[in-house]
Amino acid sequence: MKKALLLFITVTLFGCAGSKIKFDAQGVFESEEVMVASELPGKLVFFNINEGDSLIQNQIVAKIDTSNLLLQKAQLAASLSALSQKLMDVAPQIELLKNQIEVQQTQLKNLNYEKNRIENLLKSDAATKKQFDDIVFQIESLEKQIQVTKQQIKVQQSTVGTQNRSVLSESDPLQKRMDQIQDLINKSNISNPINGVVLTTYVRSGEIVGAGKPLYKIANLETLTLRVYVSGDQLSSIKIGQTVKVLVDKNKDEYTELSGKIAAIASKAEFTPKTIQTKDERANLVYAVKVLVKNDGLLKIGMYGEVKF
After folding, report:
1. Distances in whole angstroms, Cα of residue 79 to Cα of each of 162, 195, 210, 232, 288
2. Cβ contacts of residue 43 below 8 Å, gap of 6+?
3. Residue 205 and residue 132: Cα distance in Å, rounded?
4. Which of residues 102 and 4 earns the better pLDDT score?
5. What percentage of the chain's residues is helix, strand, coil (to nearest 5)?
6. How far is it, in rounded angstroms, from Cα 8 to Cα 266?
7. Which tens digits make up the pLDDT trace of 61-100?
8. Under the phi-then-psi rule, with left for phi > 0, alpha for psi from -120 to 50, and beta for the rest, what region is 263?
9. What is the DSSP code (8-state) at residue 88?
């Protein structure tokens, strides 16, 4: 009886030891992947990217053919140039009228001098009243001419200004269209959005691509995300920013231990994914947790990892 009881206790202990859970949660490593696409349709004249290439942010990695856009821009530039030739320069005409006024003012000065002379002669009866009236008439006529000339300057400025504004009103839409074309030309140079490694390429140089068609997929592999799932009773023991132990398989019986940091905890529960083990296998509803882990090259996307809180 004692031997039977001892055997039962031994089997029970070994069974408990063998079923001891080494982790609190398990998940798969993933990365923040970016799908890079062209904003323009057209022929891919430059695309020299291979899977596994390391790219830096803002690196020009592809170019769409812009021959048609350049022709459109040249046509608009020619139209703008033709419009500019329609602009009138009022300065020479104004200068001519101002010179005319200067001549008239000189004549007026001479007439006023002559008027004063005749007026003095008239006092001594050395000149006639008609001579005086004639000189006064000439002065008044010349003053009116000066006013008319000044008015001509204003009319000329107004007329030419109106004509030029009409021409410029046609040039503004053309300039805006040129700006739009230049923006499209700028977008033909496709730059890489992040530092990372190319995971997949979807096109080759020389292909015709559509706007929004993916060219390649890139991910930053310096830090990977281990997405694990925890049950509701584990939530009280974790928090965002907490440092945790991350275990990945080293061989059949050993683990490599890494350090991770909890970056996000889901606010809503979901059904347990079939491929994921949790601490409590009976849990139907679980919460997703993201753990950031620095990658020294050991970790790969899709690799399983385990977490100990």
Report:
1. 20, 43, 30, 70, 61
2. 64, 65, 206, 207, 208, 209
3. 96
4. 102
5. 45, 30, 30
6. 44
7. 999 999 999 999 999 999 888 887 777 777 888 888 889 9
8. alpha
9. -
Rounded CA-CA distance 71/76 in Å is 9
Please state the separation of Cα 112 from the chain's center in Å.
72
Q: What local confidence, expressed as pLDDT, does residue 167 receive?
A: 74
Residues 6+ apart with CB under 8 A from 118: 127, 131, 132, 135
Q: Does residue 10 register a pLDDT over 70? A: no
Question: How far is Cα 175 from Cα 77, in angstroms, rounded to an integer?
Answer: 8
Model confidence at 9, pLDDT cuts 50, 70, 90, reads very low
> Residue 273 in contact with residue 238, Cβ under 8 Å?
no
The per-residue pLDDT for range 131-155, each reduced to its tens digit, is 888 989 999 999 999 999 899 888 8
Closest CA to 262 of 278, 246, 279, 243: 243
The single-letter DSSP state of residue 280 is S
Give the whole-angstrom CA distance, residue 95 versus residue 116.
32
Tell me whether strands 285-294 and 270-271 are parallel, antiparallel or unpaired: antiparallel
Q: By C-alpha distance, which of 19, 105, 32 is closest to 264? A: 32
| Secondary structure element (H or E) that encloses residue 262, with its range | strand 255-265
102 residue type, one letter: E
| Phi, psi (rounded to 5 degrees) for 61 | -115, -15
Residue 45 has pLDDT above 80, yes or no: yes
**Which residues does residue 227 pair with via DSSP β-bridges, in sequence order?**
28, 290
Q: Which residues contact 131 (CB under 8 A, 6 or more apart)?
A: 118, 122
Take residue 35 and report the two structure tokens written for it: 């799908």
Q: Does the pLDDT at position 241 exceed 80?
A: yes
Both tokens of 138, joined, read 């000439």
